[in-house]
What does this fold into?
Amino acid sequence: MDIKQIQDLIRFVSKSGVNEVSIEQKDFKITIKTNEAPAVIHAAASAPQHYTVAAPAAPAIAAPVANEPAAETSNYVTIKSPMIGTFYRSPTPDKPLYVNVGDEIKAGTVVCIIEAMKLFNEIESEISGRIVKVLVENASPVEYDQPLFLVEPV
It folds into this structure.
């Protein structure tokens, strides 16, 4: 892991709202904690490297308020993020989007990808219905249990 990847990880942790993230590889270990004084610990050359980095506390972000009345959205089902990571609407920038507003989906349909720690996780719908609204911008960070899509069940 190079310094740019570490800096990106620190930014990601500070935006995500988690308190601590630890990564272990064969000869490398890093722990990032929020709300603590920065500390860097280097182990002996033959032992794995261990870094502890304090990231700035993430500011509280209010959830966006929907412009639709509650009665209109009460019959919709929300597809939520099963993890923290980066939300992508297509497998690669040059490929078509998995789903668009108005698309009919079935249980098991891939609706997006969430990248976490260089792993791309396909997120599948658990319900059948029609996509009513996409609640997250492409390539933006998401938190665990954050609403991603509104679906009108069939």
The CA atoms of residues 22 and 75 lie 40 Å apart. Residues 36-52, 55-71 have pLDDT under 50 and may be disordered. The first strand starts at residue 20 and ends at 25. DSSP finds two helices and eleven strands in the chain.
